[in-house]
Amino acid sequence: xxxxxxxxxxxxxxxxxxxxxxxxxxxxxxxPVFGADPLAYRxxxxxxxxxxxxxxxxxxxxxxxLFARIERSLAPRVGIALPAFDRFAxxxxxxxxxxxxxxxxxxxxxxxxxxxxxxxxxxxxxxxxVKHPYSTAGRGVWRVDNAARRAGVIRxxxxxxxxxxxxxxxxxxxATGLQCQVQTVFExxxxxxxxxTSQRSVGMGGSQSARLSEQHPIVQTxxxxxxxxxxxxxxxxxxxxxxxxxxxxxxxxxxxxLVEPMNxxxxxxxxxxILVRLxxxxxxxxxxxxxGIAGVRSHxxxxxxxxxxxxxxxxxxxxxxxxxxxxxxxxxAGSREDLTPIxxxxxxxxxxxxxxVALLWKPSNAEGLSARTVADxxxxxxxxxxxxxxxxx
Length: 393
What we know:
Layout: E1 8-12, E2 25-30, H1 38-51, H2 63-69, H3 71-74, H4 85-92, H5 94-104, E3 111-114, H6 117-121, E4 128-131, E5 141-144, H7 147-160, E6 169-173, E7 178-187, E8 190-202, E9 208-214, H8 217-230, E10 234-243, E11 248-255, H9 262-266, H10 271-279, E12 290-291, E13 297-299, H11 301-310, H12 315-327, E14 335-337, H13 349-361, H14 365-377, H15 381-388
């Protein structure tokens, strides 16, 4: 967005967040932690909008859930593209996500639900995944391969108070194929932009730390179907596994926002720009669905290093990855950096360098770095309940 001439202000609870180290940021405001106190975060945002004139409010993480809830309060002050809250909530929760896809006839792995210890103890068709309805960056998702692992997950869930009969956990069978993600923008139910990527390297929590742009026409068909079913407005990212032999996807979860859209930009479709213009009232319905070209490679070295360190990789292994990136070999051949693009934003060298040194010094730093970042923006179950109870207006 920066090279297009937008003036960008950032709100974040971390005074040293990634966006602080960018030549494109005009102002930075330190906010309350969204997941810890959504009411304080709401008040902070409303005060910022009252004190300064902004054209667009662009949620980049789970804050979108709160903004959808208070959309009537926001609408007179700023442009924002979000669906109605009841529709948004149906995709924010992993449990209701599975039900929506079943309603719409969109394929997903075999999925069941559990609310108690007895429900989980009855699940013996290994392997499968247990998912908390509200979790971010792979936290709150457990792979269960055997009875011993199942017992461990049950103990953890009981300690968290999640086997109380109220929390609806998702039990989902495993899927095979390429792990992929589709990012989309909708205009009141109509798909206006789409971009698919497959995973080439794994970061923290199973995230895509290196991507390859793809063309999956069947996914576009399914997303068109989903957008119409929900009358979706704004951004939506959906993770899926894709079987190249059958050209069939199985969808596993959604994020009602954009997720790391630089590969899309490099592929020719600038999703953040489209979302901003949509927020300003521009229409894209009559220009056809925008999509990027296939075969574009991108990566985030820092995300890959965090993923390696989280898997207990040695300093030697982490250093080897740095050398591979520097020499542009392996997964980095023909690939461009998307999270800290020094070629575009030289200041991003600072967090990349500091993060690399911290992981080389002590690989176990990965968990702390990731946990602090995720805690700053993730939606906790308590925060989700609090937001649902909010009155708007």
